[in-house]
Amino acid sequence: MKNTDKQKINQENALNRRQFVQILAGITASLPSSVIAKSSVFGRNDLQSYEHLQDPWLTLASVQEHLLPANKNSPGARDITALHFLQNLLNAPDTEQEEHDFILQGVNWLNQLSIKHNAQKFNLLDSSSKEKILREIETSRAGSRWLSLMMTYLIEALLSDPVYGGNKNQLGWKWLEHIPGFPTPTVDKVYFKLGAHASPRRVTKA
Amino acid sequence: MSKNYDVCVIGSGAGAGPVILELSRAGKSVLVLEKGPWLKEEDFFKDEMACCRRSTYTPNLQDEQHVLEEPTDNGNWISEASSESGWDFWNGNVVGGSSNFMSGYFYRLKPEDFRLRSEFGAIDGANIVDWPISYDELEPYYTKVETEVGISGHVIPHKYQEPRSTKDFPFPPTTEHPIVNKIDSACEELNLTSLPTPRAILSQPANGRKSCEYSGYCGSYGCSSGAKGSSRAALIDQAVKTGHCTVLDNAKVYKLKSDSSGRVVEALYYDQNDKAKSITAKLFVVACQAIETSRLLLASTGPKHPQGLGNNYQQLGKNLLFSAGGSGTGEFHYSKMDRLTASAMKTRGPFVNRGLQDWYFFEDKSFNGKAKGGVIDFLLRHPNPISKAMSVRWNDDDNLNWGEPLKQDLKTVFTGSQDLRFEVFNDWLPTDNCFVSLDNQVKDKWGSAVAKVRLGYHPHDLKVGRFLANKAERVLKQMGATNIRSSVSGSPPANLVAGGCRFGSDIKSSVLDKNCKVHDVDNLFVTDGSFMPTGGSVPYTWTIYANAFRVADKIKTLV
Questions:
Q1: CB of B136 less than 8 A from some CB of A
Q2: Cβ–Cβ pairs < 8 A, chains A and B
Q3: Which residues of B touch A132 (CB under 8 A)?
Q4: Are the beta carbons of B45 and A189 separated by less than 8 Å?
Q5: How near does any CA of chain A get to the CA of B90, in Å?
Q6: What angle do CA B37, B452, B102 make, to 5 degrees?
Q7: B482-531: per-residue pLDDT in tens?
Q8: Which residue of B has its CA nearest to A203?
Q9: What does residue A175 show for φ and ψ, rounded to 5 degrees?
């Protein structure tokens, strides 16, 4: 197989670092340090409880549910626990701090805009107001980049192995009639516990 | 005092495995230094996040990268570090190398591929040469790979069938997908010879390895059954059992030290704690895949080799090769089929082992007569679901796709059709615009200069690629596919790479002699795809395996 598809994925996903630094420089002013601090939730399931969410997770969950809404025939972001996936992956050892911060900082940015236009935070808006505001931020480079990252994590949450915290009960696979391969990964051998991230110290001699 | 090994092999992929196994079997003490970790069958899962979404089997690009130089429209070159562009040129840094992640389409070269210059003449701007060996010298080793690595297939006579010393493959073909019947019928109607593609995948258990379990995910994934003929599963595991082979993983060699006579005396490497260490051996074998092999030799300066080992005539890193061609797709919509046919077409697991060689050589007015073509391989669209879903992430207006429209698009792309793809393989002509050098600014995490790769291609490659893609599209049309499209470009597939240390008889125009020993170094061999002066128009892995078995026989007589 020619590895052209993989190249495309990597290129599309890669953060162009120069652009990224410019974007951050433009939006980090006057953010409370509590938002920038890395929220460590990895390995905990209690934040799956959607009833008691606080920001930034409250807003992020709301954005995810708007981007992937549930309907009577198909699962939405909450059904597949997309937020749990996002929390896990943002805290994975290979996720760059810049990317983690960028996602969380987008929340403030979105809510500032929401309060300016609608006098309330994003999660309290009706669906058409949410759509309007997301389409507005999509027109800026930083906003488009942020939404694009949110979409990438959401699609990964929908269709990756449930071991990563999304695709709950394989709802994503079932909805899209996807037949997964086997064997499927175990908790102790998810990608960031193998290979380049783990560098197991092994010298094997016969 | 550390042990003085008979042979030190740097790298453990397809070019290394045969040497490791053969020398171990011969009772020589063999040390393997592999940059990546030693993952085994029990570490491989059908996990798209691991295989294809994150850098699990390859380095973080901030730590280790390449600088890639691409042609611009106005004839200049623009270079960009891969940590900036995200264009990842690593293929598999683990024990067994990228052979762990191959699809295992296995082709021999044809006798004519060994004498391309004599058969087809020169092409302006291309450095085409004949090989210093003939097909007949490699044939016994092609045959050896069939049993040692394990190749399944079935020989069907056709006009370009290469000579074989055995009648058929040692293993029957793997189970095939129902779409194969449609391909065969269409080819018959078009008077083409649909050929079973040999695969380095066991259809029956052998040599302590299990046969294929038909999970439906193969290319890009490490094999959890051991059926895929990776250098690790097929060769290195056997070598370790002899008791003569030591594998040191997470050991990154950064320089080969040579003495005043020009011989290599030491391999310098960083261990898993980034501590600099060294080992000595009587003979050294480099097989780090083409780009990294050239990089290591360029970095290995010494008293007799001030510009790098084997570079006294500035040939090192030159004439790098990829696989030219492209790919295409056609769709078969379930709504146009009866229920039983649709259900058969949705089958996941069996392989599409079909390809065409009708135009390996051809005559055509647009090529002024006789020309070298290539092969076409058919395959199903890769089942990776995240990758498939990402294809509808943008809508027709170039805005992000979300909400109900996204959900409808996802449903269609997942449940609407079976997509048959094809890949075209033709010669990537060697030119002065495709080579490896050391970058003078970007370093890896240990402070060594990274490889800079100029990625120029010859326009002739695209002309041949388009010719073949048009032929492949005709087959899809005959099959009744819709929305048929293809793409041929000069963008190199990073996983199909060779050249950089071409072998030949003259030290002034080649790096290696016909036995793949560096011309003016007595105890240094290169056994990965670097030796190839021209690539042939097929994936390289079978040829790399075969040549490494051939060179192993030569090395055995020296230590």
A1: no
A2: 216
A3: none
A4: yes
A5: 10
A6: 40
A7: 999 999 999 999 999 999 999 999 999 999 999 999 999 999 999 999 99
A8: B248
A9: -55, -45
User: Which residue from A minimizes the CA distance to B241?
Assistant: A206
Report how far residue B89's alpha carbon sits from residue B80's, in angstroms, rounded to the nearest whole number: 12
C-beta atoms of A1 and B38 within 8 A: no
Where residue B124 falls (left for φ over 0; alpha for ψ -120 to 50; beta otherwise) is beta
pLDDT score recorded for residue A52: 85
B65 reaches A (C-beta below 8 A): no
Phi-psi region of B69 (alpha: psi -120 to 50; beta: other; left: phi over 0): beta
Among B198, B197, B199, B202, smallest CA distance to B234 is for B202
B83 interaction partners in chain A (CB closer than 8 Å): 17
Q: Is the peptide bond before A183 cis (omega within 30 degrees of 0)?
A: yes
ipTM above 0.90, yes or no: yes
3-state class (DSSP) for residue A132: helix
Residue B405 contacts A where some CB pair is shorter than 8 Å:
no
Task: Round to whole Å and give the CA distance between B555 and B508.
Answer: 24
User: For residue B100, which of B247, B200, B249, B173 has the smallest C-alpha distance?
Assistant: B200
B480 touches A at CB < 8 Å: no
A200: number of Cβ within 10 Å: 14
Q: Which amino acid is present at A2?
A: K
β strands within B101-209, DSSP E? 194-196
Laid out side by side, the sheet with B449-455 consists of B77-81, B67-71, B449-455, B434-443
> Do B54 and A94 lie within an 8 Å CB cutoff?
yes
| Cα separation, A194 vs B1, whole angstroms | 33
CA A113/CA B404 separation, integer angstroms: 24
Q: Which residues pair with B434 in a beta bridge?
A: B455
Quick one: which of A152, A134, A123 has its CA closest to A53? A123
Chain B residues with CB-CB distance to A13 below 8 A: 86
Q: Is the four-CA dihedral B213, B96, B26, B531 of positive or negative sign?
A: positive
**Of the candidates B536, B436, B550, which has an alpha carbon nearest to the alpha carbon of residue B494?**
B436
**Is B47's CB within 8 Å of A161's CB?**
yes
| Interface residue of A67, A156, A191 to substitute, partner B, most B CBs within 10 Å | A191
Q: How far is the C-alpha of B42 from the C-alpha of B211, rounded, in Å?
A: 15
Question: Is B390 in contact with A3 (Cβ distance < 8 A)?
Answer: no
Q: From the CB of residue A118, how many other CB atoms can be counted at a distance below 10 Å?
A: 16
Q: Find the length of chain A.
A: 206
Return d(Cα B279, Cα B270) in angstroms, integer: 11
The token duo for B181 is 């019947």
DSSP B463-492: HHHHHHHHHHHHHHHHTT-EEEEEEE-S--
Beta bridge partner(s), residue B302? B305
Task: Give the pLDDT confidence of B187-244 residue by residue, as tens digits.
Answer: 999 999 999 999 999 999 999 999 999 999 999 999 999 999 999 999 999 999 999 9
Interacting residues of A187 by C-beta distance below 8 A, sequence separation 6+: A163
Structure tokens that stand for B397 in this block: 């207006």
Answer yes or no: is pLDDT of A204 > 60.
no
Distance (Å) from the alpha carbon of B456 to chain A's nearest alpha carbon:
17
Q: Answer for the pair B288, B275: CB distance below 8 angstroms, yes or no.
A: no
The answer to whether residue B494 neighbours chain A at the CB level (below 8 Å) is yes
Determine contact, residues B43/A189, Cβ cutoff 8 Å: yes
Q: Is the pLDDT of residue A35 over 60?
A: no
Rounded-to-integer distance, Cα B91 and Cα A91, Å: 26
